[in-house]
Each structure stands twice: as C-alpha cells, then as structure tokens.
Amino acid sequence: MLLATQLKRVFLMEDKGQTVELSDPDPALSPQAVLNHYSNLYAILTTAKISPADIRDDAIQYKFESVMGTKG
C-alpha cells in the first residue's frame, strides 16, 4: 500500500555566520510570502532571495540568501 504524506517546510537563513531555522508561519503561504513575513523581524531578509527547494530529512528546505554585501 502506498502512503502519501505532506512534507513540512523549513526555512533557513544565515545570520552572523550561523544557520537559523525559521518555522513555517502558515503552510498556505507561498515561500515569497514567508520571506516577506520574516523580513519584518530580520532586516537582512529585505534584500534576500529564495534558493530552489531542497528535500532533506523528510522536509522541504528553502534557504533565504542575502544579497547584501555582494557585487554584481
């Protein structure tokens, strides 16, 4: 028998050299909406972009990558 389960979403960001795991505020939100939600708490996320989804440890991981301090 085949059993389908929904994977939980995990959002990651780098802050001061450490990886911070952010919980999913609402599974109905798009990853961009989650980024907008957390940019109110973490100013570095206001210019961040979202990396493609990666499935690891039975979760869908999205990484918020800051473009602050990079050229080009």
From TrEMBL:
Q: Which InterPro entries match?
A: Prok_Ub, PRTRC_protein-C
Top-rank lineage group of the source organism: Bacteria
**Any idea what this protein is called?**
PRTRC system protein C
Q: Which organism is it from?
A: Spirosoma endophyticum
